[in-house]
Model the fold of this input.
Amino acid sequence: MRVEVLHRFRVLVNGRYVALPESSQRLIGCLAVADHPRPRATLAGTLWPERSERDAHASLRQALWRLNRHVSGLLEQESQHIGLARGTEVDLHEIYRLSEAVNNSEPRVNRQAVRLLEGDLLPEWSYDWLDGRRESLRQVRLHTLEALARNDLKAGRTATGLVAALAAVGLDPLRESAQRIVIAAHLAEGNPSEAVRQYGRFRDLLWDELRLRPSRQLQEMLPATVG
Done:
């Protein structure tokens, strides 16, 4: 079984998508994001904060019942805790494993990794319990994409390094560290005109949005005539 919370929510069993009621989706999404079993009371209060404690617990029981009707074996319940069943794949966990791998070695950029790191966390959902997780994950995604890009540039794989760096810029166009890698990749490929164009776009955006100028470090990467 597999749970996907990046780009969109999906539950797959043997590779086939399983449609679930909204309440069951929220329950699975919350457990996937938490990455550990959670107390029943905490789950009920998190998922149904507008309801009384009694009604929230009733809603949790109903969500569990509906989930078991559609797909069994996805959850494990121990005492007063509920979590995803052991062995359930979660795409979110793959990002953290990739982040650890980047810190401990120099894995290469590949299409699947970039696609994974480009995915926002449950973008169609708007719940308070997701806000902090989204920002934390965004930082992990950015740092991992930049590290992958730097690793590939260092190894001479400029094309794939550029792909990862551009993905980081796509996540945060105002992030100078990502822009710096994109410009370095263009220069490494012998394309100073592309580097200058990238710098100009970033310079104009930074000024329009924040009334700031690029750092001297970034400016010094380019020909002296560029300001």
Observations:
- The beta strands are 2-4, 10-13, 16-17, 38-39, 75-78, 81-84, 89-90.
- The longest strand covers residues 10-13.
- The radius of gyration is 22 Å.
- The mean pLDDT is 93.
